[in-house]
Amino acid sequence: MMAKSKARKIKRSPGDQFVQVLIYLFVGIFALVTLLPFVYIVAGSFATERELTERAFFLFPRTLSLNAYQYIFKTGDAIRGLRNSIFVTLVGVIINMALSCTLAYPLSRQYFKGRKFFTNMVIITMLFTGGMVPSYMLIANVLHLKNTFWALWLPGAINPFNMIIIKNYFQGLPMELEEAARIDGCNDAQIFWKIILPLSKPVLASVSLFYAVTHWNSYFNAMMYISDRNKEVIQIVLRRIIFLTSAVTTDSGFDWGLFGMPPEKAVKMATTVVATVPILLIYPFIQKYFTQGVMVGSVKG
User: How far apart are CA 36 and CA 42, in angstroms?
Assistant: First the structure.
């Protein structure tokens, strides 16, 4: 009888069903509104100049053209930029997570002396910074990190907001687990590595995504500290391609299509796709951890 009662569906009133339909309708419309512009950009990157000029909006190009992507990847700069961005992102996330977690763990323990002082010091860095010029002088002249990837990793090695999310998540874990581990003879490093981290996969995955997106979209620091073309990230490479495309179009006044070159608008759309899709592909793999990690880490204090 209990199994049958649990299996029995809950009956909803007509009013509840109507409200549920409205909610699904609103969410569906909102999803379309956010998705359609990106679909248009992807479609436009495969379109011809004539179609982009004649059609204000479309989701499928009439004539499929790869000229924009061929133009972007023909010199090899974009491939090198993608390789550098992937390397910067992977190593940067490892550095960020290693430092953020090792700082968050002691700050999350009630018995740690000076816990409030160090936490306040971290919060102060969220409100005050040294400024662009002192930061550049420190990185370039004092530490001599210009034209190295360390200039992209060290300045933001620990994001205070992300560290606090991890800290709050660690605080929400039962202290009994740590006490039991100490009785079994575990030290702090073993407790952190074998107990705390395995139980913190949701927040670790979520914060890793935050750091990965930050590194992938890093533009200003790369523009300031990296002048060697062999170390340029994809954002800088795509920026130069867009500027060169605009300059050729403006100065020549010719029709791109007459010379077998892609339209300026298609190149801009293709660069958007190249810069967005690689980091976008990561999200489905950590989606199940994303909401849980952020909400639990930000609510519990």
Answer: 10
Are the beta carbons of 223 and 192 closer than 8 angstroms? no
pLDDT in tens, 84-123: 999 999 999 999 999 999 999 999 888 888 888 988 888 8
Domain that includes residue 91, residue range = 82-229+282-299
- Can you tell me the distance from the alpha carbon of 47 to that of 258, in angstroms, rounded to the nearest whole number? 15
Instruction: Assess if residue 221 is contained within a domain.
Output: yes
Kindly report, residue by residue over 199-208, the tens digit of the pLDDT: 888 889 889 9
Kindly state whether residue 206 falls inside one of the protein's structural domains.
yes
Whole-number Å distance between alpha carbons of 179 and 297: 22
Q: How far apart are CA 26 and CA 188, in angstroms?
A: 49
Distance CA 268, CA 104 (A): 41
DSSP 261: -
